[in-house]
C-alpha cells in the first residue's frame, strides 16, 4: 500500500508506530513487553500484509544518519569525571559484570553454532549487555550487520531472555541467603541521596537545537577522522570519543540541557520499526534456539564474574544488583531497582554506570566482532 519510494508516507507510518510503542510503555502490559518489541511486532505485521515494503531508500537514511545521531545524543551525559566520582563501588561491580559479558559472549560463540552471523552476534550482544539497545544498533551499523531478520531475532531474544533475567535479579535481591553473603556496608544503602533523580524541566527549542547541533558536530568530526584514517566503517568509535570529550569538557553547562534522550529514543524507535519491516519470520524462527542458548551463556558467565568480583572487593548485595541491571537493562532499569528497594545511595551510581556502558559498549562490541570473526 505504501510504495518504497514514498519516503514521507513511510516516515508517517514509522512515527505512528513510535507513538503507539511509547504510549504502551506507560501501561502494565507495555512495560513488560517493552515498547521496542511492540514497534517491531507491528512493523513485521504491516510488512507481512504488504502495507509497507521490506526495503526502501529511507531505511538507509535511518541506518546511516539517525542511528549515529541518536548515539551522540545519548552520550551528551557521558561526563567521565562525574562517572568516576559518582559511580563509586558500584562502578567496580559494573566493570566485573562487563568483563563477564565479554567472556560469556566469546565463550558462547566458541561453544555454539550461531550460523553465518556468529561474529556479528557476538559484537551486538556484548555491546547491548554493556551499554544498551543504542549500542546494539551502533555496532550493527559499524560491522555492516544489516540483515533485518537476523537483527530482529536478536532483539526479540534479548527482550524475552533479558526480561526473565531482570525478574530473577529482582527476586534475588530479597533472598536472605544472598543479602547475608554480600552484606558488607549494606547498612549505608538507604542513606544519602534522594530516592530518585530530580525531574528535569521540559526541553525547549534552545535545548534541542544545542543537543542536536553538538551531536551532529561530533558525528561530522568522527566520520571525517575515520575516513582520514582509512577506518570509515568504524566511524561510530570516533563519534563516541568526540562526544565523550565534549560531555566531559563541557560538563558544567551541558547537564542543564534538557531533552537529548527524548530525541535519541525517537530516532531509535524509527530504527526498530525499520528492523521489523525487513524481518523474515521464517529466518527468525530458525535462528531463535541457538541465540536463546547463546544469551543464557552470556548471562551465566556475567553472574559468575560479578559475584566473584564482589567477593574479592567486598561489595554488598545492592551494589551487585544495581551494577548487573545497569549492564543488562541500562540506566532506567538500574534506577528503578534502586528506587524499588529503597537504596537511596545507589540512584546516582545507577545513572553513572549506565552512562559508562554507553561509552564502552561500542568499543567492546566492535573489538569482540574482530576477535571472533578473525
Automatic annotation (TrEMBL):
<feature type="transmembrane region" description="Helical">
    <location>
        <begin position="90"/>
        <end position="109"/>
    </location>
</feature>
<feature type="transmembrane region" description="Helical">
    <location>
        <begin position="33"/>
        <end position="51"/>
    </location>
</feature>
<feature type="transmembrane region" description="Helical">
    <location>
        <begin position="235"/>
        <end position="254"/>
    </location>
</feature>
<feature type="transmembrane region" description="Helical">
    <location>
        <begin position="160"/>
        <end position="178"/>
    </location>
</feature>
<feature type="transmembrane region" description="Helical">
    <location>
        <begin position="121"/>
        <end position="140"/>
    </location>
</feature>
<dbReference type="Pfam" id="PF05684">
    <property type="entry name" value="DUF819"/>
</dbReference>
<keyword id="KW-1133">Transmembrane helix</keyword>
<feature type="transmembrane region" description="Helical">
    <location>
        <begin position="58"/>
        <end position="78"/>
    </location>
</feature>
<keyword id="KW-0812">Transmembrane</keyword>
<keyword id="KW-0472">Membrane</keyword>
<feature type="transmembrane region" description="Helical">
    <location>
        <begin position="291"/>
        <end position="313"/>
    </location>
</feature>
<feature type="transmembrane region" description="Helical">
    <location>
        <begin position="208"/>
        <end position="229"/>
    </location>
</feature>
<feature type="transmembrane region" description="Helical">
    <location>
        <begin position="320"/>
        <end position="341"/>
    </location>
</feature>
<protein>
    <submittedName>
        <fullName>DUF819 family protein</fullName>
    </submittedName>
</protein>
<feature type="transmembrane region" description="Helical">
    <location>
        <begin position="347"/>
        <end position="369"/>
    </location>
</feature>
<dbReference type="InterPro" id="IPR008537">
    <property type="entry name" value="DUF819"/>
</dbReference>
Amino acid at each position: 500500500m505504501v510504495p518504497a519510494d514514498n519516503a514521507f508516507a513511510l516516515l508517517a507510518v514509522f512515527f505512528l508506530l513510535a507513538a503507539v510503542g511509547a504510549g504502551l510503555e506507560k501501561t502494565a502490559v507495555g512495560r513488560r513487553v517493552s515498547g521496542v518489541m511492540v514497534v517491531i511486532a507491528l512493523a513485521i505485521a504491516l510488512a507481512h500484509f504488504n502495507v509497507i515494503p521490506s526495503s526502501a531508500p529511507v531505511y538507509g537514511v535511518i541506518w546511516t544518519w539517525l542511528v549515529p545521531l541518536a548515539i551522540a545524543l545519548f552520550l551528551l551525559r557521558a561526563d567521565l569525571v562525574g562517572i568516576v566520582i559518582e559511580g563509586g563501588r558500584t562502578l567496580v561491580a559494573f566493570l566485573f559484570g562487563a568483563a563477564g559479558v565479554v567472556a560469556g559472549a566469546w565463550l558462547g560463540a566458541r561453544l555454539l553454532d550461531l550460523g553465518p552471523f556468529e561474529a556479528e552476534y557476538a559484537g551486538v550482544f556484548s555491546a547491548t549487555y554493556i551499554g544498551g539497545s543504542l549500542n546494539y544498533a551502533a555496532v550493527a551499523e559499524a560491522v555492516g550487520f544489516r540483515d533485518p531478520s537476523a537483527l530482529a531475532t536478536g532483539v526479540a531474544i534479548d527482550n524475552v531472555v533479558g526480561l526473565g533475567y531482570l525478574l530473577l535479579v529482582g527476586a534475588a535481591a530479597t533472598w536472605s541467603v544472598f543479602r547475608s553473603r554480600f552484606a558488607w556496608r549494606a547498612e549505608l544503602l538507604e542513606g544519602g541521596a534522594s530516592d530518585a533523580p530530580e525531574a528535569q524541566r521540559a526541553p525547549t527549542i534552545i535545548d534541542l537545537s544545542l543537543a542536536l547541533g553538538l551531536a551532529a558536530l561530533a558525528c561530522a568530526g568522527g566520520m571525517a577522522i575515520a575516513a582520514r584514517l582509512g577506518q570509515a566503517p568504524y566511524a561510530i568509535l570516533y563519534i563516541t570519543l568526540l562526544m565523550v570529550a565534549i560531555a566531559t569538557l563541557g560538563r558544567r553547562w551541558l547537564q542543564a540541557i534538557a531533552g537529548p534522550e527524548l530525541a535519541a529514543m525517537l530516532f531509535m524507535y524509527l530504527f526498530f520499526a525499520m528492523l521489523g519491516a525487513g524481518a523474515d519470520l521464517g529466518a527468525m524462527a530458525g535462528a531463535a534456539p541457538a541465540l536463546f542458548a547463546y544469551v543464557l551463556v552470556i548471562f551465566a558467565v556475567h553472574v559468575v564474574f560479578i559475584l566473584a568480583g564482589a567477593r574479592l572487593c567486598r561489595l554488598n548485595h545492592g551494589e551487585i544488583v544495581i551494577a548487573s541491571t545497569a549492564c543488562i537493562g541500562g540506566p532506567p532499569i538500574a534506577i528503578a531497582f534502586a528506587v524499588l528497594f529503597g537504596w537511596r545511595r545507589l540512584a546516582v551510581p545507577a545513572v553513572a554506570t549506565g552512562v559508562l556502558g554507553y561509552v564502552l559498549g561500542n568499543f567492546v562490541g566492535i573489538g569482540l566482532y574482530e576477535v571472533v570473526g578473525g
